[in-house]
Write a structure and sequence with these properties.
SH3 type barrels, five-stranded antiparallel beta sheet, alpha+beta, elongated, 27% helix, 107 residues, two-stranded antiparallel ribbon, single chain
């Protein structure tokens, strides 16, 4: 499986098509994933020690792994990284010049 916990995914089919969320849990034996804010269902809960009032709760239900795709992170090319390094150097030079001017003015 290429999907891991914490990945941002997008639902590509079904009633929740187009929704995006973060993977909370993976059920490998069932080929299902639990995505935050996707496939929300209402669950009727009896009163118990932890939930004394009971009632109807809204809970995320798992969806099949084939119905989601990982949102790709933009891969940087060598050109982009070189450009960023060059810009960072220019910014440092400008800051250094401003700092030296302030020192000269204060003297």
């Amino acid at each position: 499986m290429k999907i891991k916990v914490g990945d941002n995914v997008k639902v590509i089919t079904g009633s929740n098509k187009g929704k995006e969320g973060k993977v909370l849990k993976i059920f490998r034996s069932e080929n299902r994933v639990l995505v935050d804010g996707v496939n929300v269902v209402k669950k009727h809960v009896k009163p118990n020690r932890q939930n004394e009032t009971g009632g109807i709760l809204e809970v995320e239900a798992p969806i099949h792994i084939s119905n989601v795709k990982v949102l790709e992170k933009k891969k940087e090319t060598k050109k982009e990284t070189k450009k960023e390094v060059k810009e960072a150097k220019e910014v440092k030079e400008v800051k250094a010049k401003k700092a030296s001017k302030k020192k000269e003015e204060s003297k």
